Amino acid sequence: MEGPIGAGKTTLAQRLADTFGFDTLFERADDNPFLTRFYQDPARFALQTELFFLFQRADQLRGLRQQDLFSGPRVADFLVDKNRLFAEVNLDEDEFALYDNVYQHMLIDAPAPDLVIYLQAPTPVLRQRVLKRGHAFEQRIDPDYLDRLNDAYTRFFHFYDRAPLLIVNAAEIDLASGDADYQQLVAELLDIRTGRHYFNPRPLV
C-alpha cells in the first residue's frame, strides 16, 4: 500500500493480510522520537526525522532478510521509495544533498513488490481522516504540508513502473469496514498481473 498520510494504507493492508492469511510489514512511525517535534517545528527537525525513518527502514529490511521471511507473501503499508519522497518534500537543498548521500551509501536492497496499491484522495479528505483517527502527533499537521505531500505522490506514481500498479480513488469509499467497497477492490486486484490499472468504485446506496 502507498499514499499520503490519511489515505488508509495501514487499515487496508491489515484487512488484506487477514483476508489472504499473509504476514504484514508495517511502518512504525510512533517509534520516531523526532516526529512530534517535526510537526511542531518542521524546519528544525526535518533532517533528524527523515534520517531516523531511513535507518529504521534499513533495519526492518535487514531483519527480514536475516529471518528469511521474504519467501512468503507479505502485505506492507509502505514502499521503501517513500523515504526519499518525504525527504524531497521536507528538506532544504543542502539537507537533501546530505540525506541523499547517506541514502546512496546505505544501498537499501528492497525486493520489488508483486503489486502496489496507491490510494488517492483529495487533501481535505486526508485532513479529515487524520483528525478523526486522533494520533496526537498528527493533530498539528498543516494542510499545506498535506497538499505538497499529495502532489509529490501524484508525481511519483505518474512515472512509477517497478511493479504492477493499481491506482485507487479512495476519496468516497470505505475500505476499512465497507464490505461492498472492499470486495470490489479484492476482485479487481486478483486479476492484475502487469501494467497500470485504475479503480474508481462508486459507493453503493
UniProtKB/TrEMBL annotation:
Keywords: Kinase, Transferase. It comes from the Bacteria. InterPro entries: DCK/DGK (IPR002624), Deoxyribonucleoside_kinase (IPR050566), DNK_dom (IPR031314), P-loop_NTPase (IPR027417). It holds the Pfam family dNK. One of its GO terms (molecular function) is kinase activity. Residues 2-188 form the Deoxynucleoside kinase domain. This is Deoxynucleoside kinase.
